């Protein structure tokens, strides 16, 4: 697909001279290139709406750039951006308009569509189908979580953030983050067992069968 | 096929299967590596096949969820128009004084003719200016009067000037008749 170019940021007051770099946000082009996929992925999984995710991703970088002077580097840039994205997503989901339209919007994410992206690895056709069902099941279960549970779960398992980092992003105490995470996991576990699909796949990739999430983070 | 969650021999005194919190703790970790001093939950996993299988299954499902979500988001991102950021601005602070200077020069250049005209106008004696103004007003009033009179005259005519020739067609005919009779008389004389 041909990619159009969209002017996103104001040109009048933007000054990117190398001698003026004071915050990482000043080199906005690099920041967008580096973090856009991550911010978009998080917003897409949170909102389940690609149009809203796209809009809020742009808004995230716009706000970050506007408020770049307030970035004191007490956390990583990624954490700061995700924090902005999370706040935008919260504001977005609070509106009644979102609650209504998310049921009917054409850009809503289809669970089956996501499940189709399960990597095949070396699985048999049957195992691949089971894997797709599992992903669809988790996607739907996550959708049913409370906003905070979902945010914490996605930050932990999609963005692979550590608990203190999640606390920083959400502004919640560590204990509260853990509490939300464990509740979310308990719900997912219950649903997982209830669906009768807790069968361990036969031809799991070795890395998953032996090390769980450990190597997956390293490989990303 | 679901795993059989039958009670296992108690690997850890006082414990059956993993509690929800223990399960959550283990799931929330990104590693299955057991430290030198395994916790009760870790020790239980080593001997409890059911808990171990359930944990592995859930980990696998969550890993699949992440991989699929990641791939899906990546694919969706490809369809999004690429944001074009502005080039490095030529409005660098280095050049700001120069821009201000040019702007000021242009402003002054535009202002100069106005200032000259104003001074020129101010240099004319007020009495002369007033006289000129009065004479201009008087001449324009005269021309207006003349124009109005012309219009009035034109309107008051019964026949417009352009139609005057057609007002009495018999005049021309009688003139022609008289001319022709004169000619006949002359011929007879001849």
How would you sum up this structure, described in words?
The complex is a heterodimer of chains A (220) and B (190). With 220 residues, chain A is an all-alpha fold. In chain A, 64% of the residues lie in helices and 1% in strands. Chain A has eleven helices and one strand, in the order βααααααααααα. In chain A, helix 1 crosses helix 3, helix 7 crosses helix 9 and helix 8 crosses helix 9. The C terminus of chain A is likely disordered. Chain B has 190 residues and is mainly alpha-helical. In chain B, 67% of the residues lie in helices and 2% in strands. The termini of chain B are far apart. The N terminus of chain B is likely disordered. Chains A and B meet through strand 1, helix 1, helix 2, helix 5 and helix 6 of A and helix 1, helix 3 and strand 1 of B.
Q: What ranges of chain A have pLDDT less than 50 throughout 5 or more consecutive residues?
A: 10-19, 197-220
Q: N-to-C terminal Cα separation of chain B, in Å?
A: 148 Å
- Terminus-to-terminus distance of chain A: 25 Å
Radius of gyration of chain A: 19 Å
Oligomer: heterodimer
Class computed from helices, strands and strand pairing of chain A:
mainly alpha
Order of helices and strands of chain A: EHHHHHHHHHHH
Largest sheet of chain B: none
The tally of helices of chain A reads 11
Describe the global form of chain B.
elongated
């Amino acid at each position: 697909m041909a990619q159009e170019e969209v002017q996103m940021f104001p040109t009048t007051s933007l000054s990117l001279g190398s001698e003026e770099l004071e915050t990482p946000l000043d080199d906005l082009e690099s920041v967008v290139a580096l973090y856009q996929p991550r911010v978009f992925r998080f917003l897409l999984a949170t909102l389940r709406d690609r149009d809203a995710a796209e809009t809020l991703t742009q808004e995230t970088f716009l706000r970050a750039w506007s408020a770049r002077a307030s970035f004191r580097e007490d956390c990583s840039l990624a954490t700061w951006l995700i924090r902005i994205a999370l706040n935008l997503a919260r504001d977005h989901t609070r509106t009644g308009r979102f609650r209504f339209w998310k049921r009917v919007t054409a850009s809503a994410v289809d669970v089956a569509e996501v499940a189709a992206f399960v990597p095949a690895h070396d699985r048999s056709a049957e195992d691949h189908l089971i894997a797709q069902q599992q992903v669809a099941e988790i996607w739907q279960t996550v959708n049913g979580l409370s906003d905070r549970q979902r945010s914490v779960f996605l930050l932990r398992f999609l963005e692979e953030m550590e608990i203190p980092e999640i606390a920083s992003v959400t502004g919640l105490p560590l204990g509260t983050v853990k509490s939300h995470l464990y509740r979310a996991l308990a719900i997912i576990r219950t649903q997982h067992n209830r669906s009768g699909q807790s069968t361990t796949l036969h031809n799991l990739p070795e890395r998953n069968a032996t090390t769980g999430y450990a190597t997956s983070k390293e490989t990303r | 096929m679901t795993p059989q969650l039958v009670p296992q021999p108690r690997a850890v005194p006082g414990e059956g299967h993993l509690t929800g919190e223990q399960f959550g703790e283990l799931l929330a970790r990104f590693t299955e590596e057991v430290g030198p001093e395994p916790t009760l939950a870790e020790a239980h996993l080593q001997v409890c096949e059911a808990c171990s299988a359930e944990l592995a299954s859930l980990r696998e499902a969550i890993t699949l969820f992440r991989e699929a979500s990641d791939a899906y988001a990546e694919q969706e991102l490809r369809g999004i128009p690429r944001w074009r950021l502005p080039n490095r601005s030529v409005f660098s602070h280095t050049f700001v004084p120069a821009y201000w200077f040019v702007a000021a020069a242009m402003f002054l250049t535009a202002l100069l003719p106005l200032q000259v005209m104003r001074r020129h106008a101010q240099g004319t004696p007020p009495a002369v200016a007033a006289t000129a103004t009065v004479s201009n007003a008087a001449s324009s009033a005269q021309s207006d009067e003349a124009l109005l009179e012309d219009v009035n005259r034109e309107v008051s005519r019964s026949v417009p000037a352009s139609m005057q020739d057609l007002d009495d067609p018999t005049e021309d005919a009688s003139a022609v008749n008289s001319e022709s009779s004169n000619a006949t008389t002359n011929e007879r004389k001849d």
